[in-house]
Amino acid sequence: MIHFKTLIIGVVGLIVAVTSGCMAEEASKAVDDILGRSYQEMKVSSTSINEANRLLTQTVAQKKQNEPQGDNLSPALSFDEVEGANCYAIYMFDKTANHWLHWRAIITNATDLEQGAYTETKDYIGPYPPKSRDHSYCIEVYALKHKPTNEIGKMDGTNSYEKVVKALDHVNDESGNILGYGSVTGYYKHGDMTK
Q1: How far is CA 24 from the centre of its chain?
Q2: Is the pLDDT confidence value at 127 over 70?
Q3: 3-class secondary structure, 27
Q4: How far is residue 57's CA from residue 55's CA, in Å, rounded to a whole number?
Q5: What residue segments make up the domains of the chain, in order of their start?
Q6: Which pairs with CB-CB distance under 8 Å and at least 24 residues apart come from 36-42?
Q7: Which residues touch 83 (CB under 8 Å, ≥6 apart)?
Q8: Is the peptide bond before 68 cis (omega within 30 degrees of 0)?
Q9: Percent of the chain clearing pLDDT 90 (strictly above)
């Protein structure tokens, strides 16, 4: 006999999993629309996001408004290697807050990052949403032909998603710089204690 509580937990987990899949699909559709061309789809995963698609508390910012405060450790990340890519751009946007940028990094020699690879606030500022509701944090990876010459996107502030994608795709006065794209979404709400 299935306990009611077990059934509810299972249903909630399924809803969150479906929602996370939809978020990743929406992000790829947005990239499709902006680029207007094909690219390699990349598998992106993170052990810093649990089975219920919740970000671990350790990845949360060390800010007073967070209860509990986190350790501001960037999430662990693994992604597919893309042929012809010389670097990978990593972005983590709070899609609930007008593409508030929490993580911006360029990787040249790895497709696996351990949790806490980035802790400096110039590169990574963990979630610190208001107490109101769940926020969705989309971690996006772009395989690039060439490293961008400028930092793209405003850290710890709202961004035009279209401008960020177009700037990543247009380097050295040429478009077509994005060779591959993939994303994974984790959720966090003020007060989460996820291990």
Answers
A1: 10
A2: yes
A3: helix
A4: 6
A5: 4-188
A6: 37/176, 39/178, 39/179, 39/180, 39/181, 40/80, 40/82, 40/143, 40/179, 40/180, 40/181, 41/180, 41/181, 41/182, 42/79, 42/80, 42/82, 42/141, 42/143, 42/180, 42/181, 42/182
A7: 179
A8: yes
A9: 73
Mean pLDDT of 31-52: 95
Q: Which CATH superfamily is domain 4-188 in?
A: PEBP-like (3.90.280.10)
Please name the residue that has the structure tokens 């971690």: 139
Q: Which helix (H) or strand (E) holds 188?
A: strand 178-188
pTM confidence score? 0.85
Q: For residue 171, what pLDDT is reported?
A: 94
- Please report how the helices 4-35 and 161-169 are oriented relative to each other, as an axis angle in degrees rounded to 10: 60
Q: At residue 21, what are phi and psi to the nearest 5 degrees?
A: -60, -40
Q: Is the pLDDT of residue 19 over 50?
A: no
Query: β-pairing, 178-188 with 40-41?
Result: parallel
Give the number of residues written for the chain.
195
**Tokens 């399924």 — which residue?**
14
Rounded to the nearest 5 degrees, what angle is found at the Cα of 163, between the Cα atoms of 41 and 93? 65
pLDDT of residue 195: 78
